[in-house]
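Hi F.,

I've been meaning to write this up properly since the lab meeting, where we talked about keeping a consistent format for the predictions we share between groups. The idea is simple: the sequence comes first, exactly as it goes in, then the structure tokens exactly as they come out, then a line or two of notes. No screenshots and no reformatting. I'm using this chain as the first example so we have something concrete to point to.
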Amino acid sequence: MEEREVVIVGGGPAGYVAAIRAAQLGAKVTLVEEKKLGGTCLNWGCIPTKFWLHAVDVYESIKHGSEYGVNTSGVGFDLAQIQAGKNKVVANHVGGVRGLLRMYKVEVISGRARLLPAKQLEVSLEQGGKQAIQARKIIIATGARPIVLPIPGGDSPDVMDAQDLLDLTQMPESMVIIGGGVIGVEMATVWAKLGCKVSIVEMMPHCLPTQDAEIAAVLEGALKQDGVQIYCGSRVSRIDDIPGGKAVVFTSGGAEQKIETKAVAMSVGYRANVKDLGLEECGITVNRGCIQVNNKMETNVPDIYAAGDVVGGMMLAYVAFVEGKVAAENAMGMDSTIDYHAVPQCIFTMPEVASVGLTEEQAIAEKHEIKIGRFPFAANGMASILGEHRGLVKLIAEAANNQILGVHIIGPRATLLIPEAALAIKQGLTTREIIATMHAHPTLSEAVWEAALDVTGDTIHARSRNKR
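Output, unedited:
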């Protein structure tokens, strides 16, 4: 049996980063990937989703070009060309990952790995046959898969998931998206902007249930302006076949409702890929469907680590990057830990949503005495130039010392503004440090500065709710 120094199972964001980092530290690394390098993020998630959203953003900008003196007569879109562009970008990035692994001399095996006791692995090779591997260290990074609701009709091949939505070459007249989380609202944005009649059915009281409720309400308003019908507090009971489409039956407020539609997509979250990995036989602890690890990404079995979506928590590619890096460093004898204190969250709707730290609801639940600063993008010069007046910056601070607890943004380019807030929370800064830092004019970042000023009622370019 061949022995490898570090074997990584899974080539997504956690896996390929772990492979590169371990190789940087001098290891001879083997990476086993069942499907495609880059995992969900590069192939079916982050990259293709944001390509679609950017394509729609370009389309929207051109449609409104007359506001800037640009002749836009005859503007349209071609789904086949969007798909071709998306596929090109995805292929370039997957090729880039493959090139990096080759540069670091990482051995890549195409197949499905199963763990055996004593750090052995059996790989069912893509080309057929099996390969046995003995590892000194193992990093499990098998990611996650979409959840399918256990309801009648939910497992029909006609019910799409997020990947199916990204591969459409013809736009349905109407679509029901089950789930108003990140993927649900992003996909609703895409298809509504292109002219599809979109409905969202969400079980929780608001779309984006993990976000600040005030911000989620603003986004729901923006989606409705774009023609999206939203049914929150609604539980889907079944999906029926009808001539020419589907009927989504759900209960809302104790009453049964039905939406007839041409297409249905399910976007209700992801479940960790732990099935048939051999975890039980190896004694690896699984808790609530995810591999249990500590802040060093160590499992309960010595020399076996796990990182990325398979460990649960925030299933975000950039979290997986850091987890993979930490796992690799500890596998190579370092003493690395991960800190989830200031993880930004970004949602690429129109307008965008970005947040970091505590929501208002969380801060109150944790018994913080808080003050809140707000600044609307309607009063920001750059937002006016860009033609996007919707949204605001909301800053939550500790009342006693103005330490920043959370920042929540909905508005133009919110995802580009959140790193300043993440750094502030990571470093334990107060609103005073934000205020003392000059923010260029005219920029969207001024809205963050003004929100910090508003905590004490000192905002300049808008009327403050906070009286001094």
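Notes:
DSSP finds 14 helices and 23 strands in the chain.
The mean pLDDT is 94.

If this format works for you, I'll send the rest the same way.

G.
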